[in-house]
Amino acid sequence: MARTTDGSGTPVPQRLLAAATRLFAEQGYDRTSVQEIVEAAGVTKGALYHYFGSKEDLLQEVYSRVLRLQQERLDAFADADAPIGDRLRDAAADVVVTTIENLDDAAIFFRSMHHLSPEKNKQVRSERRRYHERFRALIEEGQRAGVFSSATPADLVVDYHFGSVHHLSTWYRPDGPLTPEQVAGHLADLLLRALRP
User: Fold this and answer.
1) What is the DSSP code string of 73-108?
2) Structure confidence by residue, pLDDT tens digits, 158-169
3) Which keywords has UniProt assigned to this entry (predicted)?
4) CB-based contacts of 41, cutoff 8 Å, min separation 6
5) What global pTM score does this model have?
6) Distance CA 174, CA 180 (A)
7) Do the beta carbons of residue 66 and residue 106 sit within 8 Å?
């Protein structure tokens, strides 16, 4: 049973994450106190420590939840019964859209990753590596089939695409001229053009 402390019906862990994400984005991780997070979430410190062992655990979860969503979606695209070009384009566009939809989370993580302990940092890097390896496997599948050029190593292609994704938080604005889907389409098309044989 999900526990709540107000009439919103939102479970406490989600409220804590929402409050932490907003405060980390506005003030920075290092300038946000546990007290500010629990006040914003409308819960006690005891509730925070029941669900998250520390403020650092909240930071790790801010990023991990987005990565879990993206991994599930990538796995679905990779396993779909569709031509490799379509699967790669769908996967490439999806990571852009889901990053834009969670822009605060991505910005917080790249600004604050150095605050994680070596062990937590290693866990997050391992999760991210698993995602990149699955994405790279799609490129390699297309290269083996002759659908994509093998002139550029798959690792470099992955770095090229995710370099663009990781910088979205520095320039994308929701009130800008392009929708998330338009940005995603352009970046996915650039990737596929770079892979043309």
Assistant:
1) HHHHHHHSSS-HHHHHHHHHHHHHHHHHHTHHHHHH
2) 999 999 998 898
3) DNA-binding, Repressor, Transcription, Transcription regulation
4) 12, 15, 16, 18, 19, 20, 47, 48
5) 0.87
6) 8
7) yes
